[in-house]
Specification:
It comes from Caballeronia calidae. Pfam families: HTH_1, LysR_substrate. By secondary structure, the protein is an alpha/beta fold. The chain has three domains: 84 residues, Orthogonal Bundle (Arc Repressor Mutant, subunit A); 102 residues, 3-Layer(aba) Sandwich (D-Maltodextrin-Binding Protein, domain 2), CATH 3.40.190.10; 116 residues, Periplasmic binding protein-like II (D-Maltodextrin-Binding Protein, domain 2), CATH 3.40.190.10. Helices cover 40% and strands 20% of the residues. It contains ten helices and eleven strands. Helix 8 links the parallel strand 7 and strand 8. Helix 1 packs across helix 3.
Length: 319
Amino acid sequence: MEQRSPPIELRLLRYFVTVAEEMHFGRAAARLAMTQPPLSQAIRALEDALGVALFVRTKRTVELTPVGKDLLPEVRRLLASADALRPLAQSLARGEAGVLSLAFVSTADYGLLPALLRDFGARYPGVRLQLTEATSDVQIEELVAGRVDAGLVIPPLPPRYATSLSYVAVAREPLVIAMSADAAQELGQGAEEWADTPVDLHDLAAAPLVVFPRRLAPGLYDIIMGCYGAAGLTPRIGQEAIQMQTIVSLVSAGMGVALVPQSLRHLRRTGVVYRPLRPSGGSETLVETGLVWRAAEVSPVLAGFIDIVRSRTESTGSV
């Protein structure tokens, strides 16, 4: 069995650089606050460990060998990397460096997510973000498997994860109706993208509903069905789609109407208008989005993001 050589100490590499800069063992020893004999012995030990000569020594001169000259810049880079370890470790411990893997539902991409990323990036510019769009059910699976650090989801969470996952509500917003411009014209609503005049769900009862499949977004699906139920209506499901962009595109193609969170009106699509939903029973229907993460695994980077979320919630009073 081949015998492994002992690891080379960084101390010996620093000695090598100092001697190479001074080209004199006496001056190098003075810089290193040591005597010359131990320094000479250390350089010999380094040469023995590397199996090459680094210096050509005479009684009056010290010069680098060709190998020593080529090795010097590599050793300097290695020492610079080693010197950077301590501040990097401290930055990681403070959550100022590292990677945050964040998943999000498509509805968060048009209001909540950009604001959170802007605040987080301003406070922690050294953190690298890995963003993944996914439905709430997929996010929970990815979280439990440890493949993402946190997710922006629409509750509720599966009861079986009540103790292993932590959750904080971030924002609540009303549902609005997305309809084609032609449908809005027929209701006397005009064709502007956004107007404050509410629409009664009864006026659109005959229109097919474009919606998420319940198995992928049970929280949002049940809220939408609840709106119809509160109005005494049963919707006719026209199309199902798993992304908000697709739902809005189907609406623009005249395939039906959709009930979407209000922030989706920032998703401008030719031929689509958004209108407030007239409340049934006197109160508007709100959709909640929250942050979920593994309760037992909160890295410093994730703790910083959670702090941003809580700070924004407190400052805006959105929840």
